[in-house]
Write a structure and sequence with these properties.
The protein is an all-alpha fold. The protein is built from 18 helices and 2 strands. The longest helix is centred in the N-terminal third of the chain and has 32 residues.
């Protein structure tokens, strides 16, 4: 794979960790996570309010709606990624925020399941752009020695949006929670005036090399394999969030938890853990001077905590269950580190495409994980015909962790890598 080194960009790199780019990317990710995880929090009350009362229907329609949202993220990942390299990081950062904000405001008015599903699809498309564009912008504007800390700040601030979503959903109700999320996004757009485009991107525009060519990822064997590896690293996180945490009430019943388990509290505690995990993973990658070793450490921890969740708390109290959700959240707190690695693996003319599609394809893996999980659960059902959620969770969890560990172990180390180059073959 050939590269072209580019001359120094005309705009100097920002040296401060709390630059406008970092602050806006962090606040944008905060609103992104609020809106992204809100459905998992309000799934049960919103469906019941729309007339869905049977527990099985709440589960089945809930997984359908989250699949629609994640399917939108698959489409949006490609759309925003290509636009990020063709039109610029800022265009995507704020265009995606506008789309998901309007979709979530509309979501507060839904009256039917079909309306709900299509709006989750549109919101998913919008939610697909913010993180990749924000991480790319931060990575390209901070010195290479500091960019790990910059993306750590983005993640740590961002994932705390889930806790606000839980509080708003509990206090104001599910419809108002969607209105608040949309309003926060629209308010964030006023900060656009304080952020400047990446100097590396501006320089790449002058090089005469194709930018944002998504299909070029598939025309070069080594590049394609590297891209697939980047995608696989994030799958375990969305197995945990999309299945173990979103279906916490169902797992609580399967585990015989001695009291009611709610998805809202499970999400709250998991994302509270993610705040600490993202801070820790970013810091550890800087201290070890290695992204790969930090990711390996967290994947091992994730495997241990999945085992505890599925096999170590049977018959426990809800308090113990939520405590495990919190520590499980810490163990998957490598999300921004994963996106940073994806951004660092590719040249400036493909960086936004990869940094945006990789996390959204990882999020969108829920579309495949859900039927796989349901199919294995049904195949492992006991004599009563009850799906075996525990056994299926173990199988899917092991598979996702194995492929992720293989991927990160075979990727080139990217800590301290100079990002000022182009992909040309």
């Amino acid at each position: 794979m050939a590269r072209i080194s580019t001359p120094p960009t005309s705009a100097p790199k920002t040296t401060g960790l709390l630059s406008a780019a970092v602050v806006v990317a962090a606040l944008g990710y905060f609103v992104d996570i609020y809106d992204l995880i809100l459905f998992s929090i309000v799934r049960v009350p919103s469906l019941k309010d729309l007339g869905i009362t049977a527990a099985a229907d709440v589960t089945n329609l809930g997984t359908h709606l989250i699949s629609m949202q994640m399917g939108g993220m698959l489409l949006g990942g490609i759309l925003w990624g290509v636009l990020g390299d063709k039109r610029g990081r800022l265009s995507v950062l704020f265009g995606s925020i506008l789309l998901y904000s309007l979709a979530n405001i509309a979501n507060g008015f839904v009256q039917t399941i079909d309306q709900y599903a299509w709006l989750r699809l549109i919101a998913g498309i919008g939610l697909a752009g913010e993180l990749g564009a924000g991480i790319t912008l931060v990575a390209e504007t901070l010195p290479k020695e500091k960019r790990g800390y910059g993306t750590m700040i983005v993640a740590t601030v961002g994932v705390s949006g889930a806790m606000l979503a839980y509080w708003v959903g509990e206090v104001l109700g599910w419809r108002n929670a969607y209105f608040v999320g949309g309003g926060l996004g629209l308010a964030l757009l006023v900060l656009r005036v304080s952020v400047f485009e990446s100097g590396m991107f501006e320089q790449a525009k002058q090089q005469g090399v194709a930018r944002g060519d998504f299909f070029s990822l598939f025309t070069n064997g080594p590049r394609l394999l590297k891209y697939i590896k980047c995608l696989l690293i994030g799958v375990p996180l969305w197995f945990v969030v999309g299945i173990l945490i979103t279906l916490a009430p169902e797992f609580g019943r399967a585990l015989g938890i001695q009291g009611e388990v709610t998805a809202g509290l499970a999400v709250f505690w998991c994302y509270f853990g993610l705040v600490f995990g993202d801070f820790a993973s970013g810091t550890i990658s800087q201290l070890l001077r290695s992204r790969n070793r930090a990711l390996q450490l967290f994947l091992v921890l994730c495997g241990l905590l999945i085992a505890v969740y599925l096999f170590g708390i049977r018959g426990a109290s809800p308090t113990v269950f939520y405590a495990v959700c919190f520590v499980l959240g810490i163990s998957v707190g490598f999300w921004a580190l994963f996106v940073t690695v994806a951004a660092e693996q590719f040249g400036t003319n493909l960086r936004a495409t990869v940094a945006t599609t990789a996390p959204n394809f990882a999020r969108g893996s829920v579309v495949g994980l859900v039927p796989l999980f349901n199919g294995i659960a049904a195949a492992m059902a006991g004599p009563s015909g009850t799906p075996n959620l525990i056994g299926s969770g173990a199988v899917v969890g092991v598979l996702s962790l194995l492929v992720a560990f293989w991927a990160v172990s075979t990727l080139p180390e990217s800590y301290g890598k100079d990002l000022d180059y182009l992909e040309v073959s």
